[in-house]
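Predicting holo structure, zinc ion bound.
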Amino acid sequence: MSDYEKFWDAPAETLTREAIRDLQLKRLQSTLDRASRSEFYGAKFKEAGFDPQSVKTLDDLCRIPFTVKQDLRDSYPYGLLCEPRDRMVRMHVSSGTTGQATAIFYTRKDLDSWADLVARCMYMAGARPGDVFQNLSGYGLFTGGLGFQYGAERLGMLTIPSGAGNSRRQIQIMRDFSTGVIHIIPSFALLLMDVLTEQGIDPREALSLKIAFIGAEPHSEEVRQRIEDFYGIKAYNSYGLSEMNGPGVAFECPCQNGLHVWEDAYLVEIVNPRTLEPVPDGEYGELVMTTLAREGMPILRYRTKDLSRLIPGDCPCGRAHKRLDRIQGRSDDMFIIKGVNVFPIQVEQVLMNIPEVGNNYQILLRRQNNLDEMLVRVEVTDRMFVEDMRRLQGVLKKITHDLKGELLLTPKVELVEPNGLPRSEGKAVRLIDQRDM
Ligand code: ADP
Ligand code: ZN
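Done. Tokens:
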């Protein structure tokens, strides 16, 4: 295969480790220079006694102060701009999953390089000019809509902005236009499976899908497997966040063994969330990111609160850009019950391995007689289960047993008939903590 066929941006994708580091230092220095022009970083550097000119090697990175979400909220709306306001041509806000939203601004050049990054991701996973691409992502302020739209157009795909929700219409569009590539939130991909089943449509027969990009929310390998098996496609993990433009930050290659972070555009660190010291590759911690190619609103050492690790070793695809492991969740998602730390994704892994378990579940934490209790509500695949007491008991026992094995505590489990649990239009809400109510 020639380089032209394998890479969207061969010069960037084939950089060696050494070349990546050289480029990163150069770009970090100019990013620092730009950032110090903003009201926010100007003040922050002064307060921290940090001289942006003093960064001479990448090892100096650890002296740069962190940026946290609250900083973005405090300097809302324009405090992080390092160019005049009238040079900005686009604004997005984070979806506000964990509180008040934050605004991100883009210059024309920022939009251009962002579109290129997203195109690079999709091309790497096998999308090609001429493919029909359906973006089942919320548009508007959320970056997943326009982010993928511009990237897909840049790549040269016929791009259908079908937006979030509206399952039946989505399926109709897939059929009418022979959609081959989709971008979809994993929880919506699961929901759509139920709708297709209800309609008696086998996507392997009736649709032309070959590739899905799934992301925007944590999901387990087991969910990816379900999606791939049901639709008869390859599903690639897509990671991004508004503070770092949106989608296009890290993406799986055909090897599906971690998400390459585009290190020419982003500097990636994993730190211990308590000590804030960097951890070695292979160890889990909080993901910290720095923009290296953003003009209007650079962000330095942003604490994402997302927990992951860098995978040591080389990727067989030949790209030297470091690989991020599947995100385990946000540090805010972790809950403590009876002294045990639990991530919702651990529950998901167990559930999705059990064939009788359907595509939706919910974790409810509540206090009963002064004791914390964890209730896992699970949709079953078939209404029959709920009516057949013996089978029902068997499934209940199996779920409880497997959850206990993973979590080392015994949750209560309740089986619910198909479509019995609430669904959300955007990112799934899996955890409901009622303990303080
Ligand atoms: P919000 O933080 O309000 O949800 P964003 O829309 O910017 O706003 O979402 C970015 C966040 O979504 C990330 O920080 C991460 O928590 C989550 N996320 C995005 N992609 C993935 C993915 N592939 N796997 C797990 N989580 C993801
Ligand atoms: Zn790879």
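Residues 335-433 form a domain with the GMP Synthetase; Chain A, domain 3 fold (CATH 3.30.300.30).
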